[in-house]
Amino acid sequence: MDNLLENAKKYSYQKFKLSLPTYKRFLHSDVLHSKDKIVGIYGSRGVGKTTLMLQVAKELDIKPDEILYISCDQLIFSDVSLFEFVEYFYNYGGKCILIDEIHEAKNFEQELKSIYDFMDIKIIFSGSSAVQLTNASFSRRYAMFKLPVLSLREFCELKSDIKLDNYKIEDIITNHENLANSIVNKISNEKILKLYSEYTSNGAYPYYFVNEESYYQKITDSINTVLYTDIAIIYNVSASNIELLKKLLLSICLSKPLELSIEALSKKVGVSKVTLYKYIDYLHRAELLRHITYEGKRFKSMQKPDKLYLSNTNLFPTLCNNSEKGTIRETFFASAVSFGYSIYYVNQGDFLVDEKYIVEIGGKSKSFKQIKDIDNSFVVADDIEVGFANKIPLWLFGFLY
Q1: Are 119 and 86 in contact, with CB atoms under 8 Å apart?
Q2: Contacts of 100 (CB under 8 A, 6+ apart)
Q3: Which residues contact 243 (CB under 8 A, 6 or more apart)?
Q4: What are phi and psi of 122, to 5 degrees?
Q5: What is the rounded distance in angstroms from the CA atom of residue 179 to the CA atom of residue 399?
Q6: How would DSSP label each residue in 300-363?
Q7: d(Cα 296, Cα 299) in Å, to the nearest integer?
Q8: What span, in angstroms and rounded, lies between the C-alpha atoms of 268 and 322?
Q9: pTM of the predicted model, to two decimals?
Q10: Is 138 exposed, middle or buried (0-12, 13-18, 19+ CB in 10 A)?
Q11: pLDDT tens digits for 179-217?
């Protein structure tokens, strides 16, 4: 264990020496000021979990020799008990340990529980979105934060180097004209519709701002890592079946959300409906696709198809070249709203949001015809900077976080 800790400290020292982005994601303050002994950050590959942990660590009032960074995907930790290693570090004066890629550690949930029960040490860990924590009693003992892809607001801040506020959905619904005008005026050196267009193509992951040229290759690499490492390990899916998951993603990329029924999709992919539902759940948890159910299914069993979207709009140019503008619009809206609010699809309109707002999504000329007799209904329109009355700009929903 001496050699392992020595090697881990060398690697940790090098990690802490790396220069970090000055920009901090919206969860930074929540993680930094959390009083919980164990803090988890989960999210899809490439959203900045490791960067967030390191930024937080640099602001903790802890001496350099009392804090350690490790990553469970390193070979030196492949056959090591997480509990035993943390205990060893703790006995030598360790006060905080950052654990990256915790889902690759064996029995990580039980190991964390034991650490919590027997050691007074701060743990900040990161894990894949695909991780499913099963111990309810343990999950109540720590703080868990989901880090999503960059929002349009964060993208605009990074592009324009200005501070912009985020809003609750109630604020947008009731005060969208004033909010939109305020944002447009603040970023007067850029056009918000141009920024929105850029974001839907290449603004979801922070590494876009590191190297634009390799951006889509990095997304491709992340998708493959999620499929062949995260999903394969966590859900014990064989390599041959991972190819079926890739086929499923491609089918969704090329189709309209309701074009393929589960039965048709199962035939196209080549698996049973039971297996297909299982694969959809895996991909949904791993944040490669978004599974949106019919509103009526909340109350009773109904034979209605589900809507399947890619998780965010940047996956379209990575997976396929043929994507419809209407699907991009709905995908952007679903991605932005799903982080903090419930979302279902409905017969009249496109979505029911937060169980009270009906929205119909379309272009700037979209009418209220389909939702004109429904209370709390709104047209969410693309290609407009500022809305009026019950017509709200689509881009504004990118300012929810």
Answers
A1: yes
A2: 49, 50, 53, 69, 70, 71, 72, 73, 125, 126
A3: none
A4: -80, 130
A5: 10
A6: S----PPEEEESSTTHHHHH-S---HHHHHHHHHHHHHHTTS-EEE-SSSSEEETTTEEEEEE-
A7: 6
A8: 18
A9: 0.92
A10: middle
A11: 999 999 999 889 999 999 999 999 999 999 999 999 999
